[in-house]
């Protein structure tokens, strides 16, 4: 801004949690609902989610998956069939016990005593059990396999501490569920979908991620193996951005997913599940946003180019608007990311500075200003959101449409490079417990500064050590990475042999 201040206060380094909340508010992404723990996703935030959906849906279908929809309500007995699963989600379940209301003595409403359900219904926290019940009906023979299903829906997990996009009682997500003839096929599916998530994060969200496996203590309840993608936020904490689970035959057994094999024997299917959620929008904020607001990668921006008409006098209004609209139409004829460029002419009767800062805070990738002098010269002013708010160029208006696909991709690539540089800068190898504790201990324990990062350290998998680190430092093993060196070594905590280094971090 003109006085050197930022649009978002406090700045990231001053109070990162409050900065995050302010970015959500100032970018007009979402707001808290009157319903405890739930959020209202506003048009700009939902537009980002729609584009995430659109791209991922295309990627899922390219790998053979089809969309379906399953009930929001799950009979309590279904969850109880898989003991480890129900134990993992029991504290977060919302439960429906009645099907009718009646007038209460105080003039309000209450559940009707005569309308108590024979069996309580759990509001969907995840759908393995209810989808498994359908799979059990669909699968009779090996010829019915594989089943490759995805569902776009909402889920409810009764979180006590909530934060918009990152952790809410209700959130939007997709959940893939598959059933296979063999263990090898199910494991291959689990790995394949993890790679889809990693590719999407890199190519569309502009976020570098580590792919890897969760430790036993961090696995999805009931899974044999949980794979994940982990990203570094600007405060150097990790965010689990997506998971893919090899469920073995655990859920097939509890749901009765059986089939007649090629040898004419009854066998249990092998299953997988995988998902990402609106948490991805929280990740975008924490990876790309700055002290002036949101920065949306062009490939998933609801509006990629905003045209701001500059109208100093009423008598030039129609001429300027005509020039802006004509430029917009020429831009729409251009193709970027397999589609026409999304462009909006902001014709609201607001001061130019107010409109410009609103779009800066929303994070629109490109802003174009056009006024009466620009019409005379045949030029426009072009601003990139990945640069300073005052940085601009003055190209000829006629040249702008054809230049935008390349410019948008340049912004997309630049955001990824910045995020990768931050991650690389704060990912370190650590070879002693003392060094580990120093790395994750803030200088100011009362108001911790931004510190730490990703620590690559040898670890033997001890559950006791994991619990101690969580209690002492709030640090967890984020994953056993796929792509890093797998050289053996010695666990820095126990002195026992270690197969490879794992990634430790504080996390959301």
Relative strand content: 25-35%
The CATH topology of the largest domain turns out to be BirA Bifunctional Protein, domain 2
- Output the strand order for the largest sheet: 3-9-10-16-13-12-11-25-28-24-23
User: For the record, what is the CATH homologous superfamily label of the largest domain?
Assistant: Bira Bifunctional Protein, Domain 2
User: What is the count of DSSP helices, taking H or I runs of 4+ residues?
Assistant: 14
* Number of discrete domains: 3
Radius of gyration: 26 Å
Report how far apart the termini are. Answer: 31 Å
Envelope shape: globular
Low-confidence stretches: none
Portion in helices: 25-40%
Please tell me the overall pLDDT: 96
Topology readout:
Layout: H1 16-26, E1 30-32, E2 39-41, H2 43-62, E3 66-67, E4 73-75, H3 76-80, H4 83-89, E5 95-98, E6 101-103, E7 109-111, E8 116-123, H5 128-138, E9 147-156, E10 170-180, H6 183-203, E11 210-213, E12 225-232, E13 238-248, H7 250-255, E14 258-260, E15 266-268, E16 270-277, H8 279-288, E17 305-309, H9 317-332, E18 335-336, E19 339-340, E20 343-345, H10 352-362, E21 366-370, H11 372-377, E22 381-384, H12 400-425, E23 427-429, H13 433-440, E24 454-458, H14 463-473, E25 475-481, E26 489-490, E27 497-498, E28 501-506
Parallel strand pairs: 3-9, 17-20, 17-21, 23-24
Antiparallel strand pairs: 1-2, 4-8, 5-8, 6-7, 9-10, 10-16, 11-12, 11-25, 12-13, 13-16, 14-15, 18-19, 21-22, 24-28, 25-28, 26-27
Helix pairs in contact: 2-6, 9-12
């Amino acid at each position: 801004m003109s006085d050197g201040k930022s649009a978002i206060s406090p700045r990231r380094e001053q109070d990162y949690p409050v900065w995050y909340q302010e970015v959500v508010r100032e970018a007009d992404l979402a707001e808290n609902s009157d319903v405890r723990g739930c959020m209202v996703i506003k048009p700009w935030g939902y537009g980002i989610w729609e584009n995430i959906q659109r791209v991922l849906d295309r990627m899922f279908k390219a790998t053979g998956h089809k969309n379906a929809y399953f009930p929001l309500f799950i009979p309590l007995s279904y969850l109880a069939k898989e003991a480890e699963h129900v134990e993992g989600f029991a504290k977060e379940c919302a439960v429906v016990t009645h099907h009718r209301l009646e007038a209460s003595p105080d003039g309000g409403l209450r559940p009707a005593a005569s309308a108590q359900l024979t069996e309580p219904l759990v509001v969907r926290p995840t759908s393995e059990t209810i989808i498994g019940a359908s799979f059990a009906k669909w699968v009779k023979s090996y010829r019915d396999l594989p089943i490759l299903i995805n569902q776009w829906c909402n889920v409810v997990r009764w979180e006590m501490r909530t934060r918009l996009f990152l952790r809410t009682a209700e959130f939007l997500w997709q959940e893939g569920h598959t059933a296979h003839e063999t263990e090898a096929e199910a494991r291959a599916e689990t790995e394949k979908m993890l790679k889809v998530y990693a590719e999407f994060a890199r190519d569309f969200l502009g976020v570098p991620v580590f792919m890897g496996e969760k430790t036993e203590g961090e696995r999805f309840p009931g899974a044999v193996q949980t794979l994940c993608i982990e990203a570094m936020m600007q405060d150097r904490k990790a965010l689990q951005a997506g998971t893919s689970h090899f469920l073995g035959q655990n859920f097939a057994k509890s749901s009765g997913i059986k089939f007649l094999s090629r040898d004419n024997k009854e066998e249990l299917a092998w299953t997988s599940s995988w998902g990402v959620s609106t948490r991805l929008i929280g990740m975008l904020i924490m990876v790309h946003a700055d002290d002036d607001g949101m920065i949306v990668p062009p490939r998933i921006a609801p509006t990629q180019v905003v045209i701001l008409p500059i109208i100093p006098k009423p008598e030039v209004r129609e001429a300027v608007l005509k020039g802006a609209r004509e430029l917009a139409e020429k831009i729409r004829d251009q193709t970027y990311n397999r589609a026409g460029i999304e462009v909006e002419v902001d014709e609201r009767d607001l001061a130019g500075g107010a409109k410009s800062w609103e779009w800066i805070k929303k994070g629109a990738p490109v802003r174009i200003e056009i006024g009466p002098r620009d019409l005379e010269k045949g030029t426009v002013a072009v601003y990139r959101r990945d640069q300073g708010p005052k940085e601009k160029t003055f190209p000829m208006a006629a040249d702008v449409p054809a230049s935008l696909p390349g410019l948008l991709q340049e912004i997309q690539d630049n955001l990824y490079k910045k995020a990768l540089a931050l991650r690389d800068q704060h990912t370190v190898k650590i070879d002693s417990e003392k060094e580990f504790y120093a790395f994750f201990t803030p200088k100011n324990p009362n108001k911790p500064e931004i510190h730490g990062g990703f620590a690559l350290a040898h670890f033997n998998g001890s559950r006791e050590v994991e619990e101690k680190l969580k209690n002492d430092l709030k640090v967890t093993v984020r994953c056993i990475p796929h792509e890093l060196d797998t050289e053996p070594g010695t666990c820095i905590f126990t002195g026992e042999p270690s197969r490879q280094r794992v990634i430790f971090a504080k996390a959301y």
